[in-house]
Design goal:
single chain; alpha+beta; Transmembrane protein
């Protein structure tokens, strides 16, 4: 049995960006009843973001599409489609203006912090890599057909 050392791939940067985004401030909010502002970190948005599905925001589903895109090795097209879906769902976060708040007044999203943009950057990096791989696979197929 041959030992293969751990090798980093270009797509591992997207996972690193995703992990770093969980530790950074992501969403700036303001409670309209108690009139105070707060920051939601990325890990909080990941843990409780599925509750936004009850409000009609599908942005949290971008995390699931990211996982599918990251782990799909065989098919470049599946990776590209999943990464594009993750990016589009992540961008739909801009449409979400009020956070779910368990009956304690209205919480308004006032802006997004750098953790949110690092989160989106992890999706865009996967889109770039998947596009590059899809183009290379199609060119390799065209070269085989011409022979």
């Amino acid at each position: 049995m041959k030992f293969h050392p751990f090798r980093l791939e270009a797509r591992d940067l997207s996972l690193a960006l995703f992990a770093v985004s969980l530790m950074l401030p992501a969403i700036n909010t303001r409670n309209e009843v108690w009139e105070f502002e707060s920051v939601t970190y990325g890990y909080e948005a990941l843990c409780f973001g599925f509750l936004a599905l009850l409000h009609g925001s599908a942005a949290w589903l971008a995390n699931l599409f990211f996982i599918v895109a990251f782990f799909s090795d065989k098919r470049a097209r599946r990776r590209l489609i999943s990464a594009l879906c993750a990016t589009l769902l992540g961008l739909s976060s801009y449409l979400y203006t009020n956070m779910w708040n368990d009956g304690d007044g209205r919480v308004t999203v006032t802006g997004y912090s750098y953790g949110f943009y690092v989160w989106l950057l992890s999706f865009l990096w996967l889109v770039l890599l998947a596009t590059r791989k899809t183009i290379r696979d199609s060119q390799a197929g065209a070269n085989l057909d011409s022979r």
